[in-house]
Design goal:
alpha+beta; 6 helices
Length: 141
């Protein structure tokens, strides 16, 4: 179940009619990514299948109910992709690993209308990031 923050993001995207403005909004979202340590730009965190340089650094945390939550941050050299990482963080970050593995992430992202406006390379990169996050969640489960 998407968070209230993701629902607000969907509403924001629905409100912005112009795709140039949506791209600017994505870039602004990317500026909200937490700082990423240069030492974490390693092969173990690199996402394969992205044209841009993308790194996803995961961590886990035990919830009060005993479930394992996946947390992650990321970095990219392309501003729009940084925004996509932040969108994924808004949708997925802090969820139980089992919920992430079962989630239709692409279906949720379609609510933002991104797929029609991303280049094929960016769409492939986004799919690679989703696959990487789901693989991390599966391994943690």
């Amino acid at each position: 179940m998407p968070s209230a923050e993701f629902e607000n993001l969907v509403a924001d995207f629905e409100f912005i009619d112009d795709w140039e403005e949506r791209y600017k909004y994505l870039i602004e979202l990317g500026k909200d990514l937490p700082p990423f340590d240069e030492a974490d730009k390693s092969a173990s965190h690199k996402v394969q299948g992205c044209v841009s340089q993308v790194w996803i650094k995961p961590s886990t945390e035990q919830a009060s109910d005993g479930s394992l939550l996946l947390l992650f941050t990321g970095e990219c050299d392309a501003m729009i992709v940084r925004g996509l990482i932040q969108v994924l963080r808004i949708l997925i970050n802090g969820l139980p690993v089992g919920e992430i593995t079962d989630m239709d992430v692409q279906g949720q992202l379609q609510r933002l209308g991104l797929s029609e406006h991303l280049t094929p390379q960016r769409s492939n990169g986004l799919a690679s990031m989703i696959r990487r996050i789901k693989d991390i969640a599966s391994a943690a489960a």
